[in-house]
Amino acid sequence: MGKGEELTTTKYLIHAQINANGIVEKPDVVGAVFGQTEGLLSNDLDLRELQRTGRIGRIQVDIRSNSGRAKGDIVIPSSLDRIETAILAASLETINRVGPCEAEIQTTKVEDVRAVKREQVVNRAKEIYKSMVESVGPESMQMIEEVREAMRVHEISEYGEDRLPAGPSIHTSDAIIVVEGRSDVLNLLKYGIKNTVAVEGVNVPQSIGDLSKKRTTTAFVDGDRGGELILKELLQIGDVDYITRAPQGKEVEDLEKDEVLVALRDKVPTPQFLANHNIFSEKNKSSKRKEEKRKEPKTPVENDEVRLMKDMLREFEGTGSGAILDEALNMTKEVAVEDIYEEIKNIDSAEAVIFDGIISQRLVDVASKKGIKKLVAFNSINVVKKPRNLQLITIN
Predict the structure, then answer these.
(1) CB-CB contact of 369 with 347 (8 Å)
(2) Cα–Cα distance measured from residue 37 to residue 94, given in angstroms and rounded to the nearest whole number
């Protein structure tokens, strides 16, 4: 059996130590190992047969003599399974004589050659990878980025007649993310976010407005004036459920992965966002207040009710919650602002709904359909169609 064969087939190395009360040589040790284990184990584990069939390798002995005593190491390569190797290792400790001398053999360890090789492979792989990284120059990094960019461009899709840049999941996902431009879509694709669509400018296409009414929609805009303008336009023509922005002064296309994930994690319901951010000008708010004031009936009884409900609303200020009222203006249920739409949608009957937020066209439509007579909140935005059977009461 050649050395190459042993290295290929060996699974374990049995390591043992020998101490002899006299001078012994390597052939004495090998002879004792074969002779004193013969017949001790079954025929399947007979050392001579195992070596003949190549299931154990050549026994290696390193013996040293000093002051009339011998001491050394024994190594036996084994391609047997774990249990058979353990039995063979234990059998060595039954040897009590080597040549003419009393001796003792003790197995010190059984080494798993494959585990050692795996560790060597891992360590070497780390060295190779490190040298590869160190050898990659600016030109190579540019090539890598070009390939990555090409893959992202290949994956980008289009939506609608306007052929808007979009992620490949835009046609199937129940939730969508609306961003400003193609570069934003590509950047989010890089981080595995595929349900995006870009509006491609401040003039938001109607197709995006229509899509937002069918899907759970998150607006993800830049942290600058441009992002604010797009958000205004999107709120006017669409139905946005959540809003999030890039950090102040940054654009979505330049964000790192952790910044993107934090922004999407921290998205807030639209009413809550608008209550905390003044994105509509005072001029617009003033004109809306005048318009609503002109439309509100001014009977003395109704004015008393209005004052009462406004007082009730102030108690909810800053709580992020609201209430359902019956005909006697008694509170029948307290609800969270983000659940207002679903609560109204599933309501049986109510006189009014008061909440710490913003009245939107979406809420107006569902409230009118459910026969609610009054919506009371701190402000209203983009309410173009106001049903005759519904009164909007705001403080601002």
Answers:
(1) no
(2) 8
Relative orientation angle of helices 138-155 and 182-190, to the nearest 10 degrees: 110
69 in helix, strand or coil? strand
Q: Is residue 316 within 8 Å of residue 336, measured between CB atoms?
A: no
Mean pLDDT of the chain: 82
How many other C-beta atoms can be found within 10 angstroms of the C-beta atom of residue 339?
14
Rounded Cα distance between 199 and 179, Å, is 6
Residue 177 is predicted with a pLDDT of 93
Place of tokens 């026994």: 59
Question: pLDDT (tens digit, 9 = 90+) per residue, 36-67?
Answer: 888 787 777 888 888 888 888 889 999 998 88
Which tokens hold the place of 370? 């459910």
Q: Radius of gyration over alpha carbons of the chain, in Å?
A: 40
Cα(198)–Cα(156) distance, integer angstroms: 11
Q: In what helix (H) or strand (E) does residue 60 lie, and over which residues does it extend?
A: strand 60-66
For 139, 168, 395, the CA distances from 20, given in Å and listed in that order, are 67, 77, 102
Q: How confident is the model at residue 154 (pLDDT cuts 50, 70, 90)?
A: low
Which of 232, 238, 142 is CA-nearest to residue 197? 238
Query: Nearest-CA neighbor of 324 among 304, 349, 287, 360?
Result: 349
Cα distance between residue 153 and residue 174, in whole Å: 23
Residues 338 and 343: their CA atoms lie apart, in Å, by 10
The domains of the chain, with CATH numbers, are 10-115 (3.30.70.2690), 143-266 (3.40.1360.10), 283-394 (3.40.140.80)
| Residue positions counted in the chain | 396
Give the mean model confidence (pLDDT) for residues 216-222.
91
**Residues 185 and 179 sit within 8 Å (Cβ to Cβ):** yes
- Give the separation between CA 48 and CA 78, rounded to whole angstroms: 13
